[in-house]
Amino acid sequence: MELNILIICYLIGSVTFIIGLKMLSHPESARKGNLIAAAGMAISILGTIFLYEEQGIKLGNYIWIFAALIIGTVLGTIAAKKVKMTAMPEMVSLFNGMGGACAALISIVEFDHLNHQIQLGGAVNSGTLLIIFAGLIIGTISFAGSMVAWAKLNGRIKDFAFNGQHIMNLVIFAVIICLSAYLIISGDPAAGSLFYLVFVLSIIYGLFFVLPIGGADMPVVISLLNSFTGVAAAFGGFLYDNPVMLTGGILVGSAGTILTILMCKAMNRPLSNVLIGSFGGSSAGSASKDQGAYKEISISDSAVVMSYAKKVMIVPGYGLAVAQAQHVCHELEKLLSDKGVEVNYAIHPVAGRMPGHMNVLLAEADVDYARLLEMEHANEEFSQTDVVLVLGANDVVNPAAKTDPGSPIYGMPVLDVELSKLVIINKRSMNPGYAGIENELFFQPKSSMLFGDAKSVLQKLVAEIKTL
Amino acid sequence: METMFSWLSLHQEMIYIVILSVFLGIEVIGRVPSVLHTPLMSGANAIHGVVIIGAIIVMGKAESNNLLALILGFLAVILGTLNVVGGFVVTDRMLEMFKKKK
């Protein structure tokens, strides 16, 4: 009877995951979808704790289980509530790594269990071994990779690549596969310690897999690792004949892969290019040429040209997010609108550090959704725009993507801000952007630089416009 | 090799589930606006936290003299919970911002 209830719990869990994901892909239903999936997860977890039984024996160690659940819930909630909007991407990466580590630990314990059985003379099932190894390798790579992605987005570690790194990665991967294949086929109990070698090699592979990839590409990598963890979870489902783990894991695995490809499409680069081409490393040749001089514009001049413009376009970027300037940005927009200026936002699909980053940020500041123009639409508007205000964006407005085949971002669709009459660029300094590429836009005659932190510059602009 | 085949036939239903879920995942995500890429990724991230069920089973089965299983299982449940709870809360926080303007 109780097992039947557990089956229903798992059924509910699986269905809520599917419905949740479906609803998450529409703006109106997204939040409800997330809550539905969370409810399904809670039902599945509680069902497992109280109803699961194996060969008639129920689970024990309730104190340990609940202690761990409480610790995880408290830490997870605090971390998720406290994190700033700008740090969202690295938070997701961190949680993803936890899931990967969880899958790897399960495999380690199960292998140890199996190894004891073998030593006592039990038969090995190579199918089970295969699952354990797959869960271990994928989970560990996902964990190690996510940690690197997290540290990179944090700025704790920089890109790191050396000659022949790709070949070394391939060799490590080949060794992992060969060792695992040998252990699975031979089922040799004496070779059990090699299992831990596979574990260590997987960590190393995960580290070197993500290390050479540029910080600007981290969202794609996180999305890919996300689907890896999904697959690792699905292997756990195989191990325990558990349908929720299987459906949940595979669903995330396939959806995550598609999402990864969609993100790459938004940047107009194939996935292989992201994973192999170490971003920013090859740009040295074209960056060294003389760029000429740039000119600066004062706060008061900026205030005047914007107040008397007909159409103003704001291009937000990561600088806006870092400075937490979304509220004062909205204030500026309202002020200009009251003066009869038409103000819109041009949103590049990969502005910030994650697709949709800017939309989330501006929505937080109550910016009207209709004012956020997608790239194609914005590009049609630029030729009729009087002033473009670029706030902490760099690579997404770099004309080199259209003109310089040697540039690492060549081919990426960018915002054609240079079509407008005047471009005001707010940056903290002349340092190149996140991808480390010079931007010739800053040196064009139409462009003026407005140096400073996005928030303080916007506050001064607002104050200045009020006095006009 | 034979054990592999017998294992396959034993798990054929699961293999069917895998194949159908792959297509379902692709279908469900199909036409998502780029605005929602981040929340969707975060939501999917929370969903793969189902691994926690495996961790709970490991923990619950561990005999009291098996220290390795107890310690690693305990750690696995904590990590899994972090993934699930943190994932859903972060996603909710992101989506909260979309809703406010209505």
Q: In words, what does this structure look like?
A:
The complex is a heterodimer of chains A (468) and B (102). By secondary structure, chain A is of the alpha/beta class. Chain A folds into three domains: 1-82; 88-279, no CATH class; 289-467, Rossmann fold (3-Layer(aba) Sandwich), CATH 3.40.50. In chain A, 61% of the residues lie in helices and 7% in strands. Chain A is built from 18 helices and eight strands. In chain A, strands 5-4-3-6-7-8 form a six-stranded parallel sheet. In chain A, strands 1-2 form a two-stranded antiparallel sheet. In chain A, a hairpin with a 2-residue loop joins strand 1 (53-54) and strand 2. The radius of gyration of chain A is 26 Å and the shape is elongated. Chain B has 102 residues and is mainly alpha-helical. Chain B folds into two domains: 1-31; 34-102. Classes of the chains: A alpha/beta (468), B mainly alpha (102). At the A-B interface, helix 1, helix 2, helix 3, helix 4 and helix 5 of A face helix 1, helix 2, helix 3, helix 4 and helix 5 of B.
